[in-house]
Amino acid sequence: MTVVPVILCGGSGSRLWPASRESYPKQFLSFSGEKTLFQETVERVVGPDFDARPIVVTGSDYRFLVAEQLRALGIEADIVLEPGRRDSAAAIAAAAAIALRRDPKALVIVLAADHAMPDRDGFIAHVRRGRAAAEAGRIVTFGIRPSQPATGYGYIKPGAELTATPGANAIEAFVEKPDAATAERYVTEGYLWNSGNFLFAASVFLDELARLEPTIAAPVVEAVEKAAHDLDFLRLDPETFMMAKSMSVDYAVMEKTKLAAVVPSDFAWSDVGAWSAVWDLADKDEAGNAADGDAVFMKSSGCYVQSHGLLTAVVGLDDVVVVTSRDAVLVAARDKAEDVKKLVVELTARKRPEATEHLRVYRPWGAYERIAIGTRYQVKRITVNPGSKLSLQSHFHRAEHWVVVSGTARVTVDDMVKTLTENQSVYIPLGAVHRMENPGRIPLELIEVQSGSYTGEDDIVRYEDIYNRS
TM segments (predicted)? Predict the structure, then answer.
């Protein structure tokens, strides 16, 4: 019997702002190579130990990002869409119910999409170690032996080793993120980092959740039963799913159940929860500086820079983080990296769009990036993937000019359909019903100039859309 991988792909990763924002969070970003954290997580559970079709639980806003990144890997999955966020217990319950449909004896491994585990072989070895305990009816988590007294993780106090399933221990206590002094004591006393990854029989987990938190289990199971297919996605029934109590799996199950067990683990792991964690994972020079992109360090040590598209120079600074983007720059003390989340809360309260939105916005057909905006105009660079097309639409308040930079565009404007190539353009009058598509084999790049009294994204009427957007 193989293990069904479940990958939780929600969350905004606000501690890694400005690179990670709610519109394009950290699981879809790369920090240590070409592949993203989500893609690395998917590849981690490919092989003979695992079911070939993972279950990915995500939100509607991320569904096409998930699908595209899976397509790039050549891996198929069941992509399950939550109608709203109800925390990890509900998400895991939905996946367990779906796994149970495949096999009444299914084992499930739950992984966060935004964690880093560079030692895949070590991870697999520990999964095999915990499997016997899961088959024996335990709900297993993986506790990482600390490399330092970190204050950014919760901890697990392991109990005695389970005699029936060597390699797994009982759990004496779960504890929240400690202060520095408490963290040092935890490390000395043999506590483990709480990785938030789990292995269990689907039926056991659902039975325990029904016993401990029926207001989560019952509506989620019903939401799975009433789920509907939408293109290649499975949409959980919104009315019943949103009735579930919002609660983490630790609070709902792990801290209450007598079936909890932990596998003490020493494979490399990080939740990549702050820029300090990214620095920990990065290759460093002799002074402890690390860079992703174009950076120069002078008389500095222990610094991290992420800078794509422009040179960032750091002079005479120690232990700082500098992250640049086209619309925001972050400079922070490395030991205050956890406070970036508070900064995002403050930016959101000030209604700064930079808090949650990137200049580059991804769509199921490609992406667009704002180049300039004024009182009555906006300029965008648009990329349409080969074979993709935008919705048939119109606008009430703006006209548009499209100029093809590269590739081929098939353009519909009311009753006219024409093909444009490089350096050709077309005008879309206000109110005209129009569409753009890429019939070619290379990406279509064009510049769009909007002019009118209002250029917001909500000024759109869709008449036909292959992606089922309203």
Answer: none
The answer to whether 115 and 281 have CB atoms below 8 angstroms apart is no
DSSP state of 29: S
Per-residue model confidence as pLDDT tens digits over 331-377: 999 999 999 999 999 999 999 999 999 999 999 999 999 999 999 99
> Distances in Å between the alpha carbon of 296 and those of 280, 285, 291, 333, 457?
19, 11, 9, 18, 39
Confidence of residue 433 (pLDDT cuts 50, 70, 90): very high
What Cα–Cα distance (Å) separates residue 135 from each residue in 132, 153, 166, 370, 413?
Answer: 5, 28, 13, 52, 61
CA dist 113 and 177 (Å) reads 21
Where along the chain do the CATH 3.90.550.10 domains lie? 3-265
For Cα atoms 38, 41, 46, give the angle at the middle one, nearest 5 degrees.
Answer: 130
79-116 pLDDT tens trace: 999 999 999 999 999 999 999 999 999 999 999 999 99
Give the residue from 364, 312, 348 showing the smallest Cα distance to 17.
348
d(CA 183, CA 189): 10
Burial degree of 441 (CB within 10 A; 0-12, 13-18, 19+)? exposed
Residues 6+ apart with CB under 8 A from 200: 96, 107, 108, 134, 138, 139, 140
| Cα atoms in the Cβ-side hemisphere of radius 13 Å centred on 215 | 7
Its pTM surpasses 0.90:
yes
Question: Using 50, 70 and 90 to split pLDDT, how confident is the model at 1?
Answer: low
Do residues 277 and 16 touch, judged by C-beta distance below 8 A?
no
Q: Two tokens at 344?
A: 């995002």
Query: Strand pairing partners for 171?
Result: 158
CATH architecture of the domain with residue range 3-265: Alpha-Beta Complex (3.90)
The CATH fold of domain 360-464: Jelly Rolls (2.60.120)
> DSSP character for 85?
-
Q: Which two tokens stand for residue 372?
A: 């300039």
Query: Where do you find CATH 2.60.120.10 in the chain?
Result: 360-464
In 66-219 the beta strands, taken as DSSP E runs, fall at 78-82, 107-112, 139-144, 155-161, 169-175, 192-201
